[in-house]
Amino acid sequence: MLDSSFDVSNNPNLNCIEVDDAIWSATNWNYIDPQSFFDENCFALPSDNFAIEIISETCPGKNNGQVSISANETYDYETTINSADYNFIAATKLKLQNIIIIKV
C-alpha cells in the first residue's frame, strides 16, 4: 500500500503494527492512534505468560532462598537475577536455589 489511505485509527487495543519499513510507514501513514506504532518486528507475550513461585524465603546473609519461574508460551527465555544470567524454555521450569539477598 503506497498511498496515504491506510487508516487504523479508533483501535484502542492496537499497539504494534508490523511493517517492512517503520520509518517510511510513520512518515506516510498518519491515521493511527497515539498508542499505536510501526515496527519491523512486533512481538508481545501475554501479561500472564509467566508464573513465579517463591518456594522458600531467605534472610539477609543467608543463601537458602528458592524461586521457580515457568512460562506458558514455548520460547527460549533469558532472565537476570542478582547480576547472574539464566536461560530456560517453557517446557522446563527455571529453579533457582541458594539465593542470597544482596544489599544495594
- Helix-and-strand structural type: mainly beta
How far apart lie the N and C ends? 53 Å
- Compressed to H and E, one letter per element, the order equals EHEEEEEE
Task: Trace the largest sheet across and list its strands.
Answer: 3-4-7
| Percent of residues in β-strands | 35-45%
Summarize model confidence as the mean pLDDT. Answer: 82
Major β-sheet annotation: 3 strands, antiparallel
- Low-pLDDT runs of 5+ residues are none
Q: Please give the count of helices.
A: 1
Query: What's the count of strands?
Result: 7
Helix content: under 10%
| Rounded Rg | 21 Å
**Outline:** elongated
Number of domains: 2
Give a short summary of the structure.
This protein has one helix spanning 22-28; strands at residues 16-18, 37-39, 50-56, 65-71, 76-81, 84-89, 94-99. The termini are far apart. The protein is elongated, with a radius of gyration of 21 Å.
Overview of the molecule:
It is a single chain. The protein is mostly beta strands. The chain has two domains: 44 residues, no CATH class; 50 residues. 7% of the residues lie in helices and 37% in strands. The protein contains one helix and seven strands; from the N terminus they run βαββββββ. The strands form three sheets. A three-stranded antiparallel sheet has the order 3-4-7, with no helix packed on it. It has a two-stranded parallel sheet with strand order 1-2. Helix 1 links the parallel strand 1 and strand 2. The longest helix is centred in the N-terminal third of the chain and has 7 residues. The chain is elongated. It starts with 15 loop residues before the first strand and ends in a 5-residue tail after the last strand.
